[in-house]
Amino acid sequence: MSVSSSSSSSTSITLKIGIVGFGPFGQFLAKTMIKQGHAIRTTSRSDYTQLCGHLGITFFRNMDAFLESDNDVILLCTSILSLSEVIKAMPFHCLKRPTLFADVLSVKEHARDLLLQVLPEEADVLCTHPMFGPESGKDGWKDLTFVYDRVRIRDEAICSSFLKIFGSEGCKMLEMPCEEHDRLAARSQFLTHIIARTLSEMEINSTSIDTKNFQTLVKLKESTVRDSFDLFSGLFIHNKFAKQELENLELALDKVKQKLLDRMNES
């Protein structure tokens, strides 16, 4: 694992980046890429023709035409649950040359294994996870963590230029194997989501006598449940470490409950 403030390349090139899936996260990334001068084109299940027209982005309704548009990078911004269906339906024969495929999913082994299984052998593969989103990154990306794994890279210039998009914005660039990412994310991201979802099921809300710590819990619930249930379930289904973290949480709650009962019986 290594950390740097930018990519290792001192020079970068203007990229033609094709984004698959133009929901809120794809739009969020595209705005910074456009600001840096990269050419963006996109395709998505929903029709974003009007929005893309305002942003100066070419929108493709047809996947064949999208793949034929000679992208340097194809950036997968689909949901975790739909990635398999999306990439298995891609007509790769439409690609004009070897292309770098990168993803931004919150689970990395699942994405890596699918891409290596389905993509043409000549395609490069870069697995990434920006540890921020439209809310946490709305005021800039400086000091926010960007995790990546150079799974299969032969075109160093394209890969370095893509990584520099994030490094030049001040991201903390963290190179990490996909398995290590998933192990850590199960303890941090998934655990955060499951606690927030539990608080939501309990319908906790602000009261007139909130402590600062309780206000923090309410904010955690409110910010986390804005994310889709598809994301939450994807974190559980496709991260092999998540089930163990759920079991650990259940065991910990049982231990705390037992300690309280023991103390009550002592009094």
Automatic annotation (TrEMBL):
Record's keyword terms, sorted: Coiled coil, Oxidoreductase
GO molecular function: arogenate dehydrogenase (NADP+) activity; NAD+ binding; prephenate dehydrogenase (NAD+) activity; prephenate dehydrogenase (NADP+) activity
Keyword DNA damage attached: no
Keyword Flavoprotein appears in the UniProt entry: no
Domain Prephenate/arogenate dehydrogenase: 15-267
A Pfam short name: TYRAAT1_C
Residue runs in coiled coils: 239-266
BP GO terms, sorted: tyrosine biosynthetic process
Protein name as catalogued: Prephenate/arogenate dehydrogenase domain-containing protein
Organism whose genome encodes this protein: Nyssa sinensis
